[in-house]
Each structure stands twice: as C-alpha cells, then as structure tokens.
Amino acid sequence: MEEAISKNFIEQIIEEDLKEGKYEKIVTRFPPEPNGYLHIGHAKSILLNYGLAKEYGGDFHFRFDDTNPTKEKTEYVDSIKEDVEWLGADYDQTIYFASNYFDRMYECAEFLIKKGKAYVCDLTPEEIREYRGTLTEPGKNSPYRDRTPEENLALFRAMKNGEFEDGSKVLRAKIDMTSGNMNMRDPILYRIARMEHHNTGDDWCIYPMYDFAHPLEDAFEGVTHSICTLEFEDHRPLYDWVVRECEFAHPPKQIEFAKLYLTNVVTGKRYIKKLVDEGIVDGWDDPRLVTLSALRRRGYTPESIRRFMELVGVAKSHSSVDYAMLEYCIRDDLKLKKPRVSAVLDPIKLVITNYPEDQVEYMEVKNNQENEEMGTRKVPFCRELYIERDDFKIERPKKYFRLYPGNEVRLMNGYFVTCTDYVTDEDGNVTEVLCTYDPESRGGNSPDGRKVKGTIHWVAAPFAKKAEVRLYENIVDEEKGVYNEDGSVNLNPDSLIILKDCYVEPSLEEAAPGDSFQFVRQGYFCLDTKDTTKDHMVFNRIVSMKSSYQPK
After folding, report:
1. 319-348 pLDDT, tens digit each
2. In this structure, are residues 232 and 45 in contact, taking their beta carbons and an 8 Å threshold?
3. 117, 173 in Cβ contact below 8 A?
4. What is the torsional sign of CA 259, 262, 264, 269?
5. Closest by Cα among 543, 532, 472, 542 to 508
C-alpha cells in the first residue's frame, strides 16, 4: 500500500480548483520588486511557486514588479535574476516586466474612469490621509469624488501628458470611504512622478501604484493562483475589486501563506541597506547576511536551501524557525559531497627530530571517509609540520589527550609521535613542538597494537599553502535581540574574525573560487568568490563542524 503524502493547504486549493474545472492549466509567478537584493524569505516564495507549477504541470512566470522608479535599479534586476537561476527555478528564459504592461494598465485606468469607478483627486497627500479616517472612524469623501467621467478622463489624460506638477493630482478608485478595510477607502491608483525608469526611461510621468498594477499583471499573464505572504491578506479585497471591475473573464485567485521568520537574523531590506550604506558589512553579499547572494558567497548550496524549505513547510500562521535548522541543512548536504582536507588555522611548528631531514613521503588519504566513491589523494609528509596551537599544552588540562610533554598521539593518516620537548620565544609563547616518531606506525596504527587516545591533523610545512580564513558568526548579538529601541541592529562585535596566517594542504592550490571543503575538525569552508586571487586564497567558514540541532 502506498504511503499517503500530506498536502499543504495551497496544494489542496489547487487540486480542488482543477477537480472542479476552474482552470485548465496552473500558472504561478514570482514577482519581486527590484528595489534590493533577495533574502532567504524570498527563496521560500520562489521555490513554492516554481514547485507548484512543476507539480501540477503548469507554467511558472518570473516577473519584475517594477512600477516604482524611485527605488529600482538595474543592479537589483541583475542580482535577482542570478538568485532565481541559482535556486534552479526554470522560467523558460522568459522574464516578464510589469513596466511592459504600462500601456495596458493605462487602458484599464481609463476603463474604470468611464465606468465611474475612478476619479482624479486634487487633495494633497496630507489631506488624503486626513480624509481617510482611522481604524475606528470612517473616512469622508473627497470633494473631487463626484467629478463626471468625462472630466476625470480629460484630467487623467492631462496627467499623462505632463500638464501637472508631481504630487498635484492622483487617480483614485471610487469604492467606499466608510469601509472597515482601510485599503478599500478610495485607494490611489496612479500618481505623477517624473522619474527615469530603468526599463521605460522617461516615456511616462505617471506610474501605477502597486495594489493596482499587481492584480492586473497577474490577469494579463493568465496567472491562476497569486500566492503571496500574509501581510497582503488585507489587500485581497482590493486585488479582487481591480480584476473584477476591469472585467477579466478568468480572474486570478490570491492565496496567502506565512512568511519565513528566522531567529536572530536581519531580513528587512531597509535594515540591510543601512548596514551596506554605513560600511558595516561588505556589500549585499557579505556572508554574515541572509541575502541569497550572501548565502551563495558563504558557500550555501541550492540543494541545502531547498531542503530547508521542505523542513519549514507551508503554513497559514506565522512562526519562527531556528537558524540552526538552516545550518543543519548545509551540513547534511555537504557531508558526503565534499573532500575532507587539512587546514591549520592557528599554526605552530612540529618538528620530528628522528625523521630524516630530506625525506618526503606521500600518504594516501581518503577524500571522504563516508563516501568511498570520492577516491583518494596523495598528501606529502615530512620532518616539519604545522599543527594547531590548541593541540599542544605545556601543562596537561584534565581530560586532555592531545600533545603534551611525554604524551604520544596519532598524526592523522601519518605516524604516532611522542612529545619530547618544546621551544618558546622570549614571551613564553610556544613556537615549536619537538617529537619523535615510531617508523612502524605508518598510516596511524602500530604493529604492537598499542592504542593512543589523541589524533591531531597537520600540514607538511614546506608544502603548505598560506591562506586567509574568515570565521563568521551571526551579525546579531543574540542575547540582546535583533533590534534596539531606536531601530538600529544589535551588532555582534565578534561576527567576523579574520585569521591571516593559516596553512592548508597543497591540494587546495588547484581550488577555484566557490569550491567548498570540509576542513578536518574545523567545519565546512568555501573559497571566497570576491576576494580570492591567484596569490591569495580566502576561505569563508560556511558552518561549524557539529550542532546539537536535529530535525523533528
């Protein structure tokens, strides 16, 4: 018997609509405004809309809602396009732009005017707010509300022809100034704004408002299910009013779902923009952010994001998701796919005093101990190695099994070594650890069967490649919460630690920007795509090695 798979509430709605014959083919869309970079929350919308179209054999539209030239840039268009493609949402090489529909939107506005459903209003923005009323008090009609359709049409055409100053007139829907829904109190449909548009240039000096343009775009494209987040629930009556009054034969259906809220992260565009503008972060793709470009630069994979969204699911009510779940998903994705290599982040030298000075051996090392199919590689071993400073102590702490005077440990994939002495500088800092090795223990096991409790990793000093390593933590001070009372971000002073003098094994010399690895005992790291050069490797820590988090 086949296991029943539970459908989310959107899938249930779509299946019922198909069953009742309301639509022949499902059409969904992802319609970002190009006024910033996408973040992890947008990934949920992209993957949900694309996934539904794919699941039901429908079409997925990728469309820019570019109706506000005051905030839009080509830079944002390009970054959003890259993000959508990176996530694997196939839009069939067709990108839609709301601005390409400006002529048709204008025709719809004239249609509403002729029906007596829209009018030109001369109230100032302040007066419009005053007339609008409050949540507990009804609004009152504009003194311009009863203009005739002919007068409104002439004024609207004059607005289009640039005969009035910016902000002097608007086109408003004629609905109900006493409505309990503030969005229905004669909302603005068009405003005058002499702004250069990234797509249409200076062809227009009037621009449609989002709540008017958005439902029209969906209707023009034959979108069947307009899936958006819960903050648009109160806008749905206006959405339905627009497509109904413009008399579309097959109006789209708006469905709202809960936004993705991650604990202790900054997702608000204006907050991220402030961090960027003030130079607190290294651009919109700073790996401490959760923009998709930042996650990509840090080393997250599309597969890990998709898995994360599967675990989060689709709900009708808001809830917060622990950031540790996202980290779990990237660990789980990388653990069997990436080679495990040696990197020493805080090096001290280990000298094997009884090892021949000019000898070099090449140890055969598995690329991934959990995935035999990844094969092996040769790693050089010699008299002088780099080890982690924390892997040696002059005075042995309790339950410490690594190197200290007199103790024997295993050099991973190498030999047993015993600490015989150490060298310090004038400040008492250890600069070298002196050891002897057991030639019979090659590969990390001794013929006599003796056991050692400690195993440490290493890099052969003459062959090691120098690298910069960046350790990233949450940009937010988690103990204080995300935002201060004044709206600023509670910054974590340790969100970025840069280690300049690290050493990695020579195999990484061939790595390309964007390649990722597991650094043995350290975590997962990615070769930075922005600051890495031929002579200077920069590694970003994607995520630490382990977490107590487990999916439910």
Report:
1. 889 999 999 999 999 999 999 999 999 999
2. no
3. yes
4. negative
5. 532
